[in-house]
Specification:
By secondary structure, the chain is an alpha/beta fold. Helix content is about 30%, strand content about 25%. It comes from Streptomyces monticola.
Length: about 475
Amino acid sequence: MPDAPAVRDGTGVWTYRQLAAYSEAFALWLRGRGVGRGDRVLLQLPTDRTLAALFYGAARCGAVFVPLNPAMKAYHLRQIVANSEPALVIGDWASAGRLGEVAGPVHLLDGLWAEVEELYAQGARFEPEPVRADDVATLIYTSGSTAAPKAVICPHAQVTFASRALTQALGYRADDVVFCRFPMSWDYGLYKVLMTCIARCEIVLADGEADLVLLRRMRETGATVVPIVPSLASMIVSLSRREKDAPPPVRMFTNTGAALPQSVIDALREHFPGVRVVRQYGQTEAKRITVMPPQEDQERPGAVGLPLPGTRVLILDPDGNPVPAGEVGEIVAAGPHVMPGYWNSPEVTAKTFRPDPDTGEPRLHTGDYGSLDADGYLYFEGRRDDMFKRKGFRMSTLEIEAAAMDIPGVRAAAALPPGERHDLAVFVESELAPAAVLKELKERLEPAKVPAICRVLAEFPLTQHGKNARKELALLLDGGAK
């Protein structure tokens, strides 16, 4: 297995033997600069096989890997540098300027990697630092309820457990080729590097691949597993409708980040005969919480799966009491995948990570709502900000978005709850007229759930992770609400 393909990008491929040797060389490079256990190494680099080697190299010497999206601007970089206090900062020619403005000295990847290549060519070996289970492996910065990005603390024990449990639950195989379009600055991309290593299969890091060649690259690399979010799934469907070539050999799509509309699931199955479309639910704060067993991907419509092996999902009422099966409450996760909190953010940590009142076990209060059926399958109802009342009825933006996505010609949809300046609104990516969209929604939704406002966009604004950029949509709406 050492000479089996491990990681591929647009410029080439490394075997497991090469990946290990490059990571050892980088660990030696770090040690030579005084970086050791617990030191934060902050990187703003594209996701390619070099970054994978840097990740494993940092782990070898006990350092904390802090990857940032290359698109992140100085405003948030300044906040993250102040929060993480890195011992060493690495950038490339595209990011070094703005990193230098906020972080001081920056090691350029080109020069750094030339030195790593020399160590690699010399066959240098690294004696790994002893790592404790509670040592921090990585900090993953997320946005959410706070104005500044917050870093989820990811210790080795939780990261290892979650990676192994996910690999088992999804059934990764040694002959798989995982085609990953997501950056390692997002846990969805980072964990794929770990999971493929556990399964000893190959990962294709395709974050920089052009959209139009997506299917061709999937065919060329023999992709069998493709992680998706709704926007990427819609793109794959759109490209598949135009192409006449045989589809890539994908056996499984895995979805997270947002609910995948049934119409998109159906289209993926149509264009990729026999494929499994696996629904999941999770948050970076516990990596993944539930996974639909792949062999049950067409069962229990609406379910997002069972808890990972060795973990638990609770549905609690506002007083913290469990609710009966089928009733909606807050989704709370417990188990060895729950992270210990946010870096240097004790107040936010105390709100989200709370001890079990009986056992003291740490539990993640997700702020999301859902229900469990009698067999323990989770049904996701919406995030706290998705749930609202209108005209006396409680509803979720998710059901409005799902209805919009059911309309032929709608490629993407996002609903915004009523606010001080506007009523319930829906944005769609389509060539349809707003009146036509609203007419179709009236045929699919109860009157109280039909939006008062519809905006049609030629292209949706997306976050760095491919999710709908709701803040940008809200600004568009507030700037033109009527």
